[in-house]
């Protein structure tokens, strides 16, 4: 089957060229002059193309006039300048073949607009809507831009494992991986006997590739991972998924300042890439989802981010005349309401908050000279809050060992992580960026379930 994608046709200058198009009908209407106008979309771009089918076509009455939304067709014809409003070109059809019917009585995508809640229940059809096909194209472009950014900078792409035997960083609850018969779990001393399990020991889905990325950074310099991560936290929010994609660069010979520079370069690169390469889709989001997305991204590409310390942040928040649900004081973790207040009301742009109290951050973050704070940095953006969490890693063996014990973790399970600090330890840093939160920020979509093709959330794994 030979066909040309609509994206290619609409950008082609071959007026009067002959094309074979295949796609799904969005709408069809008849004109009094004996024509049928068909809007055809094939997902390759935001725009549909208009087909003009003349009543002289042999299957005009039997088939063409019966076409409704969702039917799939093949259309052969000539591309001509369009006299009508709203499109530059249209296809003068010579032949239409129906590939698949879609009964209008039961095809769910008849109306022009459906709620996102409803569309989530038909994840098998929602990519046929304008919004979800635009999200899929932007998500694709951003994935490509992520690899391009790191590859241009000489970073190596490392595949860290999805099944892990270590509790990584204690970041959220983990999903267990087992082949034990759950109706008859073998017992030993009153507990599940994982000795009889597939790996002979408890195993889980990874919550982060960071610790393994550190291994490769400490051999090869600059590396990154970009893959799925899993968190069984029961948080039904618009910013949390049970399965989400994370981008995690890790750099040897790099301190927190270098880490923050990379994070800002990275974000600016991705925003610029999307603005340059997803114009139509971004115009769509800007029109129908959030009328400030394009302007926001454009500003970010050229403006500096704001850098403040956690202590300064707490200072601002405790003086704020705002009714927070959660009170703030030095030592408490910031809630999303605080993060958003700082970004939206105080600075009006993304901020990088650094040097958090060590008690509220992970054991692997490097302790500052004050002994109270760690070299952590979170990138916070308006409307969403945290999109990046990063740090300089503790590279001193004894300090790390103390921190592991303080965190209530078993040093034996981190023997290899500790050994990296025994043999040729170097300052190193990295961060984790939630890919879906970045897509939310770029598209303006307020619910994270709408920026991943098949969202996994508490109680929902059906599609
Ligand atoms: P939060 O406090 O917002 O739940 P976190 O501090 O637990 O996030 P990290 O462990 O720092 O998250 O993970 C790094 C990044 O991964 C976060 O900055 C965020 O962008 C993203 N992220 C974390 N948890 C989720 C989730 N459940 N769904 C989607 N993205 C997530
Ligand atoms: Mn975090």
Description:
- It is a single chain.
- The protein folds into 2 domains: 6-100, OB fold (Dihydrolipoamide Acetyltransferase, E2P) (Beta Barrel); 127-171 and 207-450, 2-Layer Sandwich (BirA Bifunctional Protein, domain 2).
- The protein has 12 helices and 18 strands.
- The chain has helices at 6-10, 116-120, 130-152, 210-220, 256-277, 279-288, 293-302, 310-319, 336-347, 397-406, 415-419, 435-443, and strands at 18-31, 35-41, 49-54, 72-81, 89-100, 156-157, 163-164, 176-177, 187-188, 191-192, 203-205, 222-230, 243-252, 306-309, 351-357, 373-381, 385-392, 428-434.
- The strands form 4 sheets. An 8-stranded mixed β-sheet has the order 6-12-13-18-17-16-15-14, with helices on both faces.
- It is elongated.
- The chain binds adenosine-5'-triphosphate and manganese (II) ion.
The gross shape turns out to be elongated
**Small-molecule components bound:** adenosine-5'-triphosphate, manganese (II) ion
> Mean pLDDT score, rounded?
94
CATH class assignment of the largest domain: Alpha Beta
CATH homologous superfamily assignment of the largest domain: Bira Bifunctional Protein, Domain 2
Secondary structure category: alpha+beta
Percent in helix: 25-40%
How many helices does DSSP assign? Answer: 12
């Amino acid at each position: 089957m030979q066909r040309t994608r609509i994206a290619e046709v609409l950008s082609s200058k071959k007026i009067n060229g002959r094309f074979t198009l295949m796609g799904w009908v969005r709408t069809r209407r008849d004109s009094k002059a004996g024509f049928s106008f068909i809007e055809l979309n094939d997902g390759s771009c935001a725009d549909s193309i208009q087909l003009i089918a003349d009543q002289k076509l042999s299957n005009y009455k039997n088939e063409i006039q019966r076409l409704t939304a969702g039917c799939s067709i093949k259309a052969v014809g000539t591309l001509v300048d369009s006299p009508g409003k709203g499109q530059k070109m249209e296809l003068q059809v010579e032949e239409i073949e129906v590939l698949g019917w879609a009964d209008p009585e039961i095809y769910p995508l008849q109306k022009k607009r459906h709620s996102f809640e409803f569309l989530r229940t038909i994840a098998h059809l929602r990519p046929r809507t304008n919004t979800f096909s635009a999200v899929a194209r932007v998500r694709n472009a951003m994935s490509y831009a992520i690899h391009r950014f790191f590859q241009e900078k000489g970073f190596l792409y490392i595949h860290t494992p999805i099944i892990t035997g270590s509790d990584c960083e204690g970041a959220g609850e983990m999903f267990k991986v087992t082949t034990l018969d759950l109706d008859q779990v073998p017992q030993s001393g009153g507990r599940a006997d994982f000795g009889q399990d597939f790996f002979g020991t408890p195993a889980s889905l990874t919550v982060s590739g960071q610790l393994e990325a550190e291994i490769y950074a400490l051999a090869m310099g600059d590396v990154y991972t970009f893959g799925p991560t899993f968190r069984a936290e029961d948080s039904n929010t618009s910013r949390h998924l049970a399965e989400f994609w994370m981008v995690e660069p890790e750099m040897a010979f790099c301190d927190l300042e270098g880490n923050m520079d990379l994070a800002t370069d990275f974000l600016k690169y991705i925003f610029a890439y999307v603005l340059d390469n997803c114009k139509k889709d971004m115009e769509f989001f800007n029109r129908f989802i959030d009328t400030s997305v394009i302007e926001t991204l454009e500003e970010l590409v050229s403006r500096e981010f704001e850098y403040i310390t956690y202590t300064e942040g707490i200072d601002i928040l405790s003086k704020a005349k705002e009714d927070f649900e959660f009170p703030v004081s030095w030592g408490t973790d910031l809630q999303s309401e605080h993060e958003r207040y700082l970004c939206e009301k105080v600075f009006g742009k993304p901020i990088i908050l650094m040097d958090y109290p060590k008690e509220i951050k992970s054991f692997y973050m490097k302790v500052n000279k004050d002994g109270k704070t760690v070299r952590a940095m979170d990138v916070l953006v308006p409307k969403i809050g945290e999109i990046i969490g990063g740090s300089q890693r503790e590279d001193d063996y004894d300090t790390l060992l103390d921190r592991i014990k303080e965190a209530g973790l078993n040093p034996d399970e981190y023997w290899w992580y500790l050994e990296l600090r025994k043999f040729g330890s170097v300052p190193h840093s990295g961060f984790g960026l939630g890919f879906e939160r970045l897509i939310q920020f770029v598209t303006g979509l307020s619910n994270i379930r709408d920026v991943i093709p098949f969202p996994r959330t508490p109680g929902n794994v059906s599609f």
